[in-house]
Amino acid sequence: MSRVAFFSGDITRSGGTERVSTVIANQLAKREEYTVFFLSLTEQGKKPGYPLDEKIPRTFFSKKWIRPGAGYLPVIWKLICYLKRNRIDILIDIDGVLDVVSLPAKFFTHVKLISWEHFNFYADLGTSYRKIIRRLAARYADAIVTLTEQDRSFYCQNLTIRHTIQTIYNPIDYIQPEKDALTKDYTQKIILSVGRLTDVKGFLRIPQIADGIRKKYPELSFQWLIAGEGEQRAQMEEEIRRWKVEGYVRLLGHIENITEIYKKALVYVMTSRHEGLPMVLLEAKMHGIPCVSFDIITGPSEIIQDRVDGFLVPCTENDRELPEEMVDALGKLLTEEELYRSFAAHTQDNIGKFRLEHVMECWDSLLSSFSS
Fold first, then answer.
1. 151 or 256: which carries more pLDDT confidence?
2. pLDDT tens-digit profile of 148-169?
3. Cα separation of 236 and 250, whole Å?
4. How would you classify the pairing of strands 223-227 and 143-146?
5. How far apart are CA 12 and CA 63, in angstroms?
6. pLDDT in tens, 280-309
7. In 3D, which of 45, 185, 68 has the Cα closest to residue 127?
8. How buried is 18 (Cβ within 10 angstroms: 0-12 exposed, 13-18 middle, 19+ buried)?
């Protein structure tokens, strides 16, 4: 039996990494081969952001957030003691930045370390030391898990990987496939985008794109709904006024029941600058919605089947330049019903690799390789 500990920044947060790590931990806890633990740097909330099996013991090191850098030094010793006390065989860092703590601890224990990358190789999130940590993980971690094959190739092209590197997709089974997608009312031309109103999501480009659609298809009546909140709210409102698309683009703010919005949408659009594995595209596909996305790194090209269930369009070099190909792609889906229905019928063709059963087979194979 392997004793496996998941290591997070704060399991009480409700982000994508917390969601998927609790799903995987819960699944492993159901199996006789594993005893599962959950460890966080801090727990600033009262309970996990997502349901965690009661059999999984939780521990955290500090009630206050620990700033990266010198503040991590005492944590290394605490982690060493934790690993030895609980006889942990495998430690899974669910954010690569935690490797800065786990790698030193690894040398004082027998633990096998898995660095689970939730962003992409080129994303440093404003912290240059992520690049250094990735180099150290490539050399000393027992395995690196990436969210996409494209990101795996970036690691292999840029670093010498000493041990295992494997792509394991995040599971999408928290959403059930939509059965009535093909009967959607095509007269309700609703475009949907979901996410925080931040620079990386590229939402500031939406008003210009909406204006481009309006001018190229003057007879087309559509609504572009943006679900999410964030620091660019005021800028979004300003851009909507600037391009005079108040009647076309609506900011919904934070939505509790996003499923109801997915059910109404005809097309999903992603304007992000970069991603790890964009779960919003998978959510849209599970609802039978054709997607249009910039062909960014990483994720869209492994989710969208270009010209089969959606469109991948090239990014323009200048944010102020109208992405004509995105305007054309949206125009086609909103005006050519036969094309739209064909795309919608194929949205779930390639979902199998993102289903929980397949994902768990990949994790089981990786974990069992350490005991063979």
1. 151
2. 999 999 999 999 999 999 999 9
3. 10
4. unpaired
5. 12
6. 999 999 999 999 999 999 999 999 999 999
7. 68
8. buried
Q: What is the pTM of this model?
A: 0.90
Residue 183 makes CB contacts below 8 A (sequence gap 6+) with none
Q: What is the mean pLDDT of residues 167-184?
A: 80
Q: What confidence tens digit (pLDDT) does each residue in 30-41 have?
A: 999 999 999 999
320 CA to centre of own chain:
27
Q: Is the pLDDT reported for residue 372 higher than 60?
A: no
Q: What is the mean pLDDT of the chain?
A: 92
Q: Sorting pLDDT into bands at 50, 70 and 90, what band is 63?
A: confident
Q: Which two tokens stand for residue 261?
A: 């919005």
> Which is nearest to 228 in space by CA: 197, 198, 257?
197
Nearest alpha carbon to residue 206 among 326, 307, 306, 325: 326
How crowded is the C-beta side of 317, counted as CA atoms within 13 Å? Answer: 0
**Domain 181-351, CATH:** 3.40.50.2000
Report domain 2-171+355-368's class. Answer: alpha beta
- DSSP code, position 295: -
pLDDT computed for residue 17 by the predictor: 87
Q: With 0-12 CB in 10 A as exposed, 13-18 as middle and 19+ as buried, what is 175?
A: middle
- DSSP lists the bridge partners of residue 54 as none
Tokens of 91: 């430690």
Per domain, the residue ranges of the chain are: 2-171+355-368, 181-351
Q: Do domains 2-171+355-368 and 181-351 have the same CATH topology?
A: yes
- Give Cα separations from 49 to 10, 154, 231, 316, 372 (angstroms): 9, 31, 22, 37, 34
Task: Compute the 3-state secondary structure of the chain and give helix, strand, coil in percent, each to the nearest 5.
Answer: 40, 20, 40
- Residue 38 forms beta bridges with which residues? 6, 58
pLDDT at 180: 63
Residues 6+ apart with CB under 8 A from 105: 76, 79, 80, 83, 91, 111
